Queue: 2 jobs
Job 1
Amino acid sequence: MSFFDMFKSRAATAPVARERLQILLAHERMTLGPKNLIAILRDEILATVAKHIDIAPDALKITMGQHGSVSTLEIDVELPTEKIAPARHMPMRATA
Amino acid sequence: MSKVVVVTSGKGGVGKTTSTAAIGAALARTGKRVCVVDFDVGLRNLDLVMGAERRVVYDLINVANGDAKLTQALIRDKRVETLSLLAASQTRDKDALTEEGVARVIEELRGLFDYVLCDSPAGIERGALLAMRFADEAIVVTNPEVSSVRDSDRIIGLLDSRTLRAEQGQRMEKQLLLTRFDAARASRGEMLSVADVLDILSIPLMGIIPESEDILRASNLGAPITINGSTSQAGRAYEDAARRLMGESVPMLIPGEKKSLLTRILGRRAA
Ligand SMILES: Nc1ncnc2c1ncn2[C@@H]1O[C@H](COP(=O)(O)OP(=O)(O)OP(=O)(O)O)[C@@H](O)[C@H]1O
Ligand SMILES: [Mg+2]
């Protein structure tokens, strides 16, 4: 190790910290369980629905359940009627 | 509508209690009715930081167990009349707190206050889980340092799985409060930068609180740094964070960046 390297590694250790954390946390998020799965699913489903319909984040409910021998994933999206109604009525208004 | 917010971190000593007091006082000064609740049973400190340590008669456990009425246990701040404190017990151990008891207290607090801020104990065990259990939102307090960031990631996982909201399939709002930030050290690459921490934890940023002697002074005096309106940089940073919690959009200044940009421009002109 040259004198310059020593100086450099002393000064900027943050990039090393960042990289170590990224590797460690990627691993820990996997092993510490699927509990994050619901949160991830919720965010992704919300993003997908929100692309087409204007919904509040609270309008989406996701629950995982166990009914006898089957596991279920329940997705409940509350749609604002007035927000999807115009799309349906549009052709009618066009003919009128 | 009343909001219950947990101030949590996983790692100890990162600034949860300081932040609960500072944000609580800042919110209360805008006229909101605020109660700060100490969940750190056995190691209570919020009373001290709030300057109310000699006024504690009843505590959270007394109320949760039905030994005292909530109104008897609430300590009204003498400086800001919309601010109250519910202290933790110093003598009982943390198993004295039951989930049903906490549920009842939180429900009653919701009826009296606009904001209920729950100061979580460190760790990821029972005490920390009870503090977050009934929250609508979370403030994740993190220092720009590897072990704190790792523990925050762990806490985020728990917020998304072990809170009532998460179990009911609802979204748990989480915001990052980066505290004890030293802009000079971050710019020299000695400390994780704001961007690094945000990138790793990927939750919205609520504020950046600089490392500051004023914080120590404030806790020495038992006066939250925002209690008199802020004269210090850290106090202003906490006030901005409180306004963001209320849903206002306040521009975020990343400490050090403004200065470096300015010196860059000045430097160029001089050249
Ligand atoms: N921005 C800051 N600048 C300087 N010192 C700070 C800052 N924030 C907090 N501190 C100091 O750090 C110490 C720990 O803060 P605090 O008690 O708020 O942390 P905590 O997360 O509540 O700790 P615990 O996990 O033990 O409950 C205190 O001495 C406090 O004064
Ligand atoms: Mg504390």
Job 2
Amino acid sequence: MTAVLDVREAWKVYPGTPPVESVRGVSFTVERGELTTVVGASGSGKTTLLNLAAGLDRPTSGTIRIAGHPIENLSDRMLSGLRAHRLGVVFQRFHLLTHLSVTDNVAMGLLYRGVPAGLRRAAASEALERVGLSHRAGHRADRLSGGEQQRVAIARAVVGRPELVFADEPTGNLDSVSGAGVLELLGELNRDGTTIVVITHDAKVAAAGRRLIEMRDGRIVRDSGGTP
Amino acid sequence: MTLSTELRPPRLRAADLLPVATGGLRTRRARLLLSILGIAIGISAIVAVLGITRSSQADLLARLDRLGTNLMTVFNGSNLSGREVPLPATAALTIRHTEGVEAVAPTAELDGIGVYRSDLIPPQITGGLSVRAADSSLVPTLRGATLVGKHLDEMIGGYPVTVLGHAAAKTLGIADLSGTPRVWIGGRWYTVIGILRPLELAAEIDRSALIGFPSAARDFGHNGRPSRIYVRSRTERTQAVSELLARAANPRSPHEVAVSRPSDALTARLEVADSATALFVGLGAVALLVGGVGIANVMIVSVLERRAEIGLRRALGAARRHVAAQFILESLLLGFAGGVVGVLAGAVITCVVAAGRGWQVLIPPEALGGGLVTAVAIGTLSGIYPAMRAASVPPTEALRTS
Ligand SMILES: Nc1ncnc2c1ncn2[C@@H]1O[C@H](COP(=O)(O)OP(=O)(O)O)[C@@H](O)[C@H]1O
Ligand SMILES: [Mg+2]
């Protein structure tokens, strides 16, 4: 069976004087069902790596296969399709649309798959149940606490049951209690079968992960599991 | 696991595009209202100008229709004191026998005779009114009507009675026939037996006191020679008749005779209205251009403010075309809203102006439809560049934290 994610010798160099080498020859593989935690100091290249792995950006060199598809061969449109159908992303800054209800925000996770509105809402209700927020379904997104908003964002990422979910510092904007709750939720979703890659600079969060990848200066300096 | 290896492009249902586009409009309401103002003003100006012009033209056309374009006046010019010079005594008869003539009404301005409310007013204060001899053919030929009383007919033509033109009655301060009003004409009292409605094609009759030819002969020694003759022809013969009238009226010196067609003044106003319309529609077009730039401006600012939202949508799988479509539609809706407001405002302005002038309201449907289509087109065009900017926002924008 093919790996959900396969990163081979990926480089990301931002042009400039001097050029910024944010990711320098990174290789790793994520298998179905894994919960991978990427740690590293601020500026070590974690977000840049996630952009590449989640098909949001293209590497300067190297190959990245998402669900078996090498993304360098994909048009922008097909890469978008890959994101719509296969991937979910959770952001540090939640990125909820404040004028929409909680349910509608979650349903947006299926908007660009062409799923009819009724089915989107039904799936959103189910996803809200999974993150324990059914009782806030009708509220406007900006009425919720930070921890709740991040759980809504997680529900949006998993509503279409994607093959791979990325989270970039999902606890970065939360207090420690809400942050712990969010990490617990990600752990539960993983136990239910969701493949997750979490990025953090928080060592405590790192301890909760089963597999740990440590980055420094754009390179992987330690990988506790998987095949490099 | 065949499904998992298949590659599919993203898809945004048409039914979802509208809520996606209006979502951006629901926030930032005040700014959006301002942004559609330019379009609304431009469209309302164009609709109002077309509506008002059309209503006024309809009114003119209705009046022309009612008054006819087949009325002509024949007169012999004026003397040094501005009084009309008499035509030959046979003029009315000759004209009546001209091919194509339907009705003839001779009138004679009485030189040096004025009409006054009382015998105490100095004769030189004429109030711009004149005294004319006329007969019963006058009012039918002009398609006029009496406001009160009756028109002088041949039977009472010999008595000292007068019918006043509308403006003349007003100037003399006579509104109706109560109390049997009299006027002082050339040193005699004349009883007012009727007042005419305004005559649009014969302002000189409006400003006259009319007496019968027999009274004119008896009281003022008038010789019966007309100074101005009104002629109705068969409409399709009007041009031909007008060319024959001068010779018929005054065979010896036809070049002295002036033949005119009073309805020409109304016809000319139709053309003036047309050229004024072109000017105002041009001004409206400038307002539209400014309005379009306004919308483009607001949309560009909106794209800058919403980079995170755009990045999010791209991260959720939106293709560039979906983002572009969202912003184009948003801009189109702004144009449409401006168009609706403009068309409504233009229609209201037209109604108010038309009601104020007593016209029938007539707004050309093509101005309404064209106004909306134009507004939508401008909104769409204004959205193209902002939409291109939006579509070029990279998906990585969603993960930026600063
Ligand atoms: N768009 C960019 N252009 C230039 N340099 C960038 C860009 N994005 C990130 N970098 C640089 O790449 C390095 C890694 O950044 P990042 O991946 O955000 O690190 P982390 O997420 O681990 O804090 C940093 O030095 C940052 O300044
Ligand atoms: Mg980062």
